[in-house]
Write a structure and sequence with these properties.
- There is one protein chain.
- By secondary structure, the chain is α+β, with helices and mostly antiparallel strands.
- The protein is built from four helices and 13 strands.
- Strands 2, 3, 4, 5, 6, 7, 8, 9, 10 and 11 form a ten-stranded mixed beta sheet that branches. Strands 1-13-12 form a three-stranded antiparallel beta sheet.
- Strand 8 and strand 9 form a beta hairpin.
Length: about 290
């Protein structure tokens, strides 16, 4: 053994977290969200069985529009390659876009094949994954890069498939299967979006009905307020009448007391009058007796 070999230090890069993975569909396809051309974040399905990274033409047009707004263009290359989708026959790819992708702390420019198949919006294939030497934890839904910087196109082995070559048959089948799965998941997502739209429409109608009911309640509230005002006025008048009645009752009690006192005085005067009449009769009798004696 070479003694110098023992002295050599082996540098092992520290894995760098690229991001959290999202899952979608019954088959739990894993999605990563790179930032494309520093202008737009897009979800991409990770497919380790696909040889190349694909993007649908519709999605690529969105990128071109976003890039044009910041006065930039996307570098393109011509390409001729056939792939097989879910439909019979092969689909030909004619363009490659050199797109800048920011995935976590990693930034790289990568050739992305532009596909006319709308069933594959954005698919990250083995060609891109090799440049990051990823460590994927599917249970924790996380992905790390085991390199400090992205490797050249083709990965560590520097093997890059020629654009003129067709995919091997087994890879073609794998891509076809992935395309079909993605198509089914897109249909499922569209059905979910349709359901969501229906729910939104129902919520909108319920909101309009609620608003109409609130207007009706508001219209009923005005007569209610008027009635409450009338009732309040009546209650106030009743309170005033009760107060007057209380005052009258007090006056009546005073008058009755005065009347009782007066009656007592009248009774005393009548008694005195009787006494005076009796005295007068005695005087008259005495006077008569006196007259007879004279």
């Amino acid at each position: 053994m070479d003694p110098h070999a023992l002295q050599e230090e082996v540098h092992v890069p520290v894995p760098q977290l690229l991001g959290n993975l999202k899952t979608r569909g019954v088959a739990k396809r894993f999605l990563l969200s790179p930032i494309v051309e520093e202008v737009i974040e897009m979800e991409a399905m990770i497919d380790t069985g696909a040889d190349m990274t694909l993007m649908s033409n519709i999605l690529f047009q969105q990128i071109q529009t976003a890039v044009a707004k910041v006065n930039r263009t996307v570098q393109m290359e011509n390409c001729t390659k056939k792939i097989r989708g879910s439909a019979p026959g092969a689909t030909q790819i004619r363009d490659i876009a050199l797109l800048r992708l920011d995935i976590g702390p990693m930034s790289l420019t990568h050739p992305v094949h532009i596909s006319p198949l709308d069933t594959l919006p954005f698919l990250i294939g083995a060609d891109l994954l090799k440049r990051l030497e990823p460590l994927i934890d599917f249970q924790q839904s996380k992905i790390w890069a085991q390199v400090e910087q992205p490797l050249p196109v083709g990965g560590a082995d520097k093997k890059v498939a020629s654009c003129k070559e067709e995919l091997p048959e087994n890879r073609e089948k794998q891509l076809s299967t992935a395309t079909q799965r993605m198509g089914e998941e897109i249909k499922l997502l569209q059905a979910q979006n349709q359901k969501h739209a229906e729910v939104e429409e129902q919520n909108r109608k319920l909101g309009e009905e609620k608003k109409e009911m609130e207007l009706q309640i508001a219209a009923l509230q005005e007569p209610k307020k008027q009635l409450e005002s009338i009732i309040k006025d009546l209650q106030q008048k009743i309170e005033e009448l009760e107060a007057k009645n209380n005052n009258l009752q007090k006056d009546k009690d005073v008058l009755e007391q005065d009347q009782k006192v007066m009656q007592e005085k009248v009774d005393v005067l009548l008694e005195k009058n009787k006494e005076m009449e009796a005295s007068q009769k005695l005087l008259e009798k005495d006077n008569e007796d006196l007259q007879e004696q004279l």
